[in-house]
Amino acid sequence: MRLLIRARNRQIAVDAGKISDVRGDFDLVLNFPDAEIHPGLINAHDHLHRNHYGRLGHPPYRNAYEWAVDIQAREADRIALGRARPRREALLEGAWKNLFSGVTTAVHHDPWEADFDAGFPLKLVRLRNADSLGMTPELAGTVGEGPFCLHVAEGVDFRAAAEIDALAERGVLGPELLAVHGVGMDAASRRRFRASGAALVWCPSSNLFLFGRTASAALLAEGVDVLLGSDSRLTGCGDLLDELACARRLGMLGDGRLLAAVGATAAYRLGLPVPSLETGSMADLVILRRPILEACAEDVLLVLVDGVPRIAHPSLGASLAPFFQHAEERTAGGVVRWTALPAAAWTPLQ
């Protein structure tokens, strides 16, 4: 199956899951004269199964541990209702949230799920991870090599600030650490963190909701790799495009570093190929009618994962339908899109 996409900024041919030569014949040609094609975005932090609850809590809190105790006491009915949802449905809701915002690869900061190996529509990075020093003090997920994800200093009190020294004492503070949040680092812990070679996964909207503040400008300054994560809708404001907008309003990262936080820097730190539009690259693509840093989910016209269209503007449904047995329109965050169901193959119907 050969696809040609003509966008305002360039033409891209897709064949067998990869970007290919634009010469030759094509089974389908899609034209986007008023939109641009980009590599798919990378979401460095989400909990896919927790995006259907809505925001929970009564902030502000001193730390995430306090928030967890509070919602178990005050939001027990909503939590029970959310947990009653079939697991695959919950995971897919998180996947569609990401795809609707142009994300083609995400980090699920929880144990690996069997569903991810069974026709899942979103690419996921399989990483070592543990929750946090407070919730999983044994840090069992540190066994092995490669990037290691951990919620770190998610709070504004002494307990949060003290986690940097605790990680250093355990030998965990180093270049393999992907520290999620980092809100509560004081000046001394910031210096130690920045000198360690660890990277920060920044989720500003989640931080602002829980604590009324986020990681400091001193922590985010040049010299530390910053990745961006949406977090789940338990605390985050929405999807990754919403998170980019939130981060940009704060003005602590320039546009180039923000784009790298969902692109090249994220790929480097997660051990992924650099996102590219060059021939031979994986066809993980998003077509947007506005620049990435100004876009919202309504601006996402088409998303391909491994060369397979997964979401598209409803106006494209008739063109794509002949190639899919299983497709439907669905709504995420108030946005309606044509979607190819997870098991749907990219083959012409007979």
UniProtKB/TrEMBL annotation:
- InterPro entries per record: Amidohydro-rel, Metal-dep_hydrolase_composite, Metal_Hydrolase, MTA/SAH_deaminase
One Pfam family for this entry, by name?
Amidohydro_1
Q: Which domain of life is it from?
A: Bacteria
Output the Gene Ontology terms for molecular function.
hydrolase activity, acting on carbon-nitrogen (but not peptide) bonds
Record key words, sorted: Hydrolase
* Start and end residues of each Amidohydrolase-related domain: 164-307
Give the family this protein belongs to, as stated in its UniProt record: Belongs to the metallo-dependent hydrolases superfamily. ATZ/TRZ family.
Question: What is the protein's given name?
Answer: Amidohydrolase family protein
